[in-house]
């Protein structure tokens, strides 16, 4: 029996996209640039597409099982999905008439954790494999930083098979990030990430990060805020010799290695245990025991990221401390070195000596977002991501052709609106007449009967105080929504 109001088909997702973003209550609050609010009719959430649009994403693994379709003998999709969650199900019934999948409860198969990277620039791992019977996909959306997570027992692992990479495809930098809620206190080094070159990121006592080569510790850093879920990020630059460690979106340490670390080439990239496979009853030596705890959102990008995106990867957004900032924010800012603050100040165009936090709250969903930044803190997101802005009615769209953040989605081989032409400056067309729109802008024109005071004043003056009717070709709304050009 279903509860009242439950739809018969819960697999339908609806979204109003960005159609009503001229109203502040309709705007999304997630600190990303391509966000839709989506609903099943039972639950509503905000879905960010930024990482899924990144042409140089390598692994975007949010700890969900991958899904494929069953095909009939003629190669046609049956519309029946196969969910690779480790449970064994068999098809019963006709493939084209009321097919059904029936659980065989005493059998298990390998789990395939989805890799959502859509890059066409390089071969990427198809999925993360978890050996049969060594882990599980959570049956309800719990355990993760948001929604489902994956439980590392210390004895299990997620293995991403890295295909051979073209020599010319080696990027100038990599970014690696993962959420972990460590559940161990012993002082034995535990493998968190093992790269194809055998080098490792290990954790000691749940609060110290080690870099290891050939099983030997070559560098270690204490995490400044190591309670519950925390985010660990790595900027890997200069041919894998310059390693910057980030904690909860803020840089805390830079290490110059004498030999390359964390190389990503053909082989296995492993999250968790290393060594023998427990599914075939091979013994596990103490040195192969992996990290124990919940993990979520394992992301590998084949490019560097700026300070705001690094904070976004940690589910936060950067904010500058003012004189009225609460003591807890000052204390948080003091956990991070002056070099970290200086780099953010440079990116934001702020005075030297400015102090910042990656505003986040891991205690609940949407505990920290773009519309609840506390008093005494000021967002610097737009200053970093869109310094050529803001958008103004009565003036051409700003020139974003040199904006590296925009180029993380727009590129020369991009399709549709993801070409570099979308970023180019056109001095002959004002913004309200330019067909190009940024992802969170509402459509240019509205139609029909326009109520009085329909759009309240905000950044722009708002809509007219009297009701009116739009002409057949509609009314452009940018002069109502956006500030006017100087």
Structure description:
This protein is mostly beta strands and 486 residues long. It contains 6 helices and 29 strands. The protein has helices at 50-53, 307-313, 327-333, 338-348, 381-385, 478-481; strands at residues 14-15, 35-39, 44-48, 57-61, 67-71, 77-83, 87-92, 100-108, 111-114, 127-130, 150-153, 157-162, 173-182, 190-194, 200-204, 208-213, 216-222, 230-237, 242-247, 250-256, 267-272, 292-301, 317-321, 356-359, 377-379, 445-446, 449-450, 468-469, 475-476. The strands form 8 sheets. The chain has an 8-stranded antiparallel beta sheet, with no helix packed on it. Strands 4, 11, 13, 18, 19, 20 and 22 form a 7-stranded antiparallel beta sheet that branches. It has a 3-stranded antiparallel beta sheet with strand order 1-2-3. Strand 18 and strand 19 form a beta hairpin. The longest helix is centred in the last third of the chain and has 11 residues, at 338-348. It is globular. The mean pLDDT is 91.
Task: Give the structure's gist in a few sentences.
The chain has six helices and 29 strands. Helices cover 8% and strands 31% of the residues.
Helix-strand blueprint:
Blueprint: E1 14-15, E2 35-39, E3 44-48, H1 50-53, E4 57-61, E5 67-71, E6 77-83, E7 87-92, E8 100-108, E9 111-114, E10 127-130, E11 150-153, E12 157-162, E13 173-182, E14 190-194, E15 200-204, E16 208-213, E17 216-222, E18 230-237, E19 242-247, E20 250-256, E21 267-272, E22 292-301, H2 307-313, E23 317-321, H3 327-333, H4 338-348, E24 356-359, E25 377-379, H5 381-385, E26 445-446, E27 449-450, E28 468-469, E29 475-476, H6 478-481
């Amino acid at each position: 029996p279903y509860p009242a109001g439950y739809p018969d088909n819960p697999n339908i997702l609806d979204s109003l996209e960005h159609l009503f973003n001229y109203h502040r209550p309709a705007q999304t609050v997630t600190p990303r640039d391509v966000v839709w609010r989506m609903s099943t009719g039972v639950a509503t959430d905000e879905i960010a597409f930024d990482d899924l649009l990144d042409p140089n994403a390598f692994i975007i693994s949010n700890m969900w099982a991958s899904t494929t379709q069953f095909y009939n003998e003629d190669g046609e999709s049956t519309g029946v999905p196969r969910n690779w969650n480790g449970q064994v199900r068999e098809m019963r019934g006709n493939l084209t008439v009321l097919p059904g999948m029936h659980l065989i409860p005493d059998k298990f198969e390998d789990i395939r954790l989805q890799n959502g990277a859509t890059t066409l620039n390089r071969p990427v791992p198809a999925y993360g494999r978890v050996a049969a019977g060594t882990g599980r996909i959570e049956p309800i959306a719990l355990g993760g930083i948001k929604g489902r997570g994956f439980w590392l027992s210390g004895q299990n692992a997620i293995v991403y098979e890295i295909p051979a990479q073209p020599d010319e495809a080696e990027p100038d930098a990599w970014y690696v990030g993962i959420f972990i809620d460590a559940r161990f206190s012993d002082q034995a080094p535990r493998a968190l990430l093992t790269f194809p070159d055998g080098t490792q990121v290990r954790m000691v006592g749940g609060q110290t990060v080690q870099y290891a080569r050939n099983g030997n510790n070559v560098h270690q850093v204490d995490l400044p805020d190591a309670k519950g879920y925390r985010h660990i990020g790595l900027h890997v630059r200069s041919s894998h010799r310059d390693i910057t460690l980030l904690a909860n979106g803020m840089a805390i340490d830079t290490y110059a290695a004498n030999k390359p670390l964390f190389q990503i080439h053909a082989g296995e990239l492993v999250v968790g245990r290393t060594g023998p496979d427990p599914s075939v009853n091979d013994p596990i030596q103490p040195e192969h025991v992996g990290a124990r705890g919940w993990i979520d959102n394992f992301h590998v990008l084949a490019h560097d990221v700026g300070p705001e995106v690094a904070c976004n990867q940690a589910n936060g957004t950067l904010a500058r401390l003012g004189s009225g900032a609460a003591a807890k924010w000052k204390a948080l800012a003091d956990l991070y070195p002056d070099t970290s603050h200086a780099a953010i100040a440079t990116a934001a165009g702020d005075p030297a000596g400015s102090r910042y936090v990656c505003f986040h709250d891991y205690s609940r969903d949407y505990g920290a977002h773009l519309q609840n930044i506390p008093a005494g803190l000021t967002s610097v997101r737009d200053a970093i991501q869109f310094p050529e802005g803001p958008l103004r009615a009565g003036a051409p769209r700003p020139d974003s052709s040199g904006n590296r953040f925009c180029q993380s989605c727009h590129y020369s081989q991009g399709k549709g609106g993801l070409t570099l032409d979308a970023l180019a400056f056109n001095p002959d067309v004002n913004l309200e007449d330019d067909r190009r729109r940024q992802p969170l802008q509402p459509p240019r024109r509205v139609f029909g009967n326009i109520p009085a005071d329909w759009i309240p004043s905000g950044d722009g003056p708002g809509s007219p105080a009297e009701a009116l009717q739009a002409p057949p070709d509609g009314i452009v709304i940018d002069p109502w929504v956006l500030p006017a050009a100087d």
